[in-house]
Write a structure and sequence with these properties.
The protein is of the alpha+beta class. It has 3 domains: 2-149, no CATH class; 184-233, no CATH class; 243-341, Immunoglobulin-like (Sandwich). It is built from 9 helices and 10 strands. The strands form 4 sheets. A 3-stranded antiparallel beta sheet has the order 5-6-9, with no helix packed on it. Strands 8-7-10 form a 3-stranded antiparallel beta sheet.
């Protein structure tokens, strides 16, 4: 494969491997011009005697060929000028430095006539290692020619392979730590937090049931649960309360037998519910003509019941409980009285 400098028309012999290494850009050894070697790539040298002469090639190509050295590795200087930057992409600053040094040398000493330059030893070694089968090389060059011409050379080469970062984390010979069961640990943490949440919910429900047990005990569905809870934690459940099931019967109001200006009130309370319930607070309202309010008083169970009654047991169902009250007669205009339960 051959390429030619577009500036000074100097031709060079180049291989596919060198093109890949230089990323397609080489520096001319004569004019130090950086050019794209792929754009002028061809299978025959420009101006080669075995091919048609290039219209831009110098006229003394044949003479220079005849006066060349007999070394088979050193060819015509027109084609085999040393490849200065054939193995790497030349940066812009390096080109400027070479150009400045070239200018200084030309100013101090006259430019010598073109001469045959020696091919670097590294290039001679590589050329000597080329296999004898040139047909295989030409076939490979033809197959890759189109791909090379359409390939955009970049400054960075892609990696030959990619591997996870963990592959290169440890140095050679180092022992990697044992893998941790992070997934199992996350499962255990999730299960632990779930258990704690369930326990907190039970505690919250228990607190609500404890402080609201008086209201919750009125529901037949919840009372067995509350009783079992209180048996476990040694708490008391208040009696179920249903004031609408309590009635006052056999009411009698009369002046007190011995005390003047005192009224004596007698009656009987009956619990019509099917369960025991606490004794209610009894309120007595006295009113005059036109239901005008005159007097009101509330009586606790300990005030209207006899001392031998157990208040904790409550009112048994359908059992009359006799009561007796004594109130001061407020005036002679009392016409009505009314009892209410709380």
């Amino acid at each position: 494969m051959y390429t030619q400098c577009p500036n000074c028309k100097t031709a060079y012999k180049i291989t596919i491997a060198e093109l890949r290494t230089a990323q397609g850009f080489v520096s001319c050894g004569q004019c130090h011009q950086l050019f794209n070697a792929v754009s002028t790539l061809s299978e025959h040298a420009h101006g080669d005697p075995h091919s048609e002469p290039h219209e831009s090639a110098p006229s003394d190509t044949a003479d220079a060929t005849n006066c060349g050295p007999s070394n088979p590795h050193i060819e015509h200087p027109f084609f085999d000028t040393p490849l200065v930057s054939l193995r790497k992409a030349v940066a812009t600053d390096a080109i400027d430095q070479k150009a400045s040094r070239h200018t200084q040398n030309r100013a101090t000493s006259p430019e010598p006539p073109p001469a045959i330059e020696e091919i670097p030893s590294t290039l001679q070694t590589e050329q000597s290692e080329i296999p004898d089968s040139q047909e295989w090389e030409e076939k490979e060059a033809r197959e890759n020619d189109e791909r090379l011409l359409n390939t955009r050379f970049t400054a960075t080469q892609p990696p030959l392979f990619s591997a996870p970062a963990d592959t290169f984390r440890y140095a050679a010979g180092a022992t990697a730590p044992a893998p941790t069961n992070s997934r199992n640990r996350r499962k255990w943490l999730t299960a632990l937090w779930s258990l704690l949440i369930v326990i907190m919910l039970f505690v919250l429900v228990g607190q609500f049931a404890y402080y609201r047990r008086a209201q919750l005990a009125n529901y037949d569905e919840l009372r067995p649960w509350l009783e079992s809870l209180c048996n476990t934690f040694n708490c008391e459940i208040p009696l179920r309360k249903a004031l609408s099931k309590i009635v006052l019967v056999d009411r009698r109001i009369s002046p007190h037998a011995t005390e003047e200006g005192v009224l004596s009130i007698r009656g009987a309370l009956i619990n019509e519910a099917h369960f025991n319930q606490p004794y209610p607070i009894l309120e007595l309202n006295l009113s005059g003509f036109g239901n005008k309010f005159k007097s009101r008083r509330r009586f606790l169970p300990s005030e209207y019941l006899s001392k031998n009654v157990d208040l904790k047991v409550g009112m048994p169902p359908n059992v009359p409980i006799h009561i007796e009250l004594e109130v001061v007669y407020p005036s002679n205009k009392i016409l009505n009285y009314k009892f209410e339960f709380y």
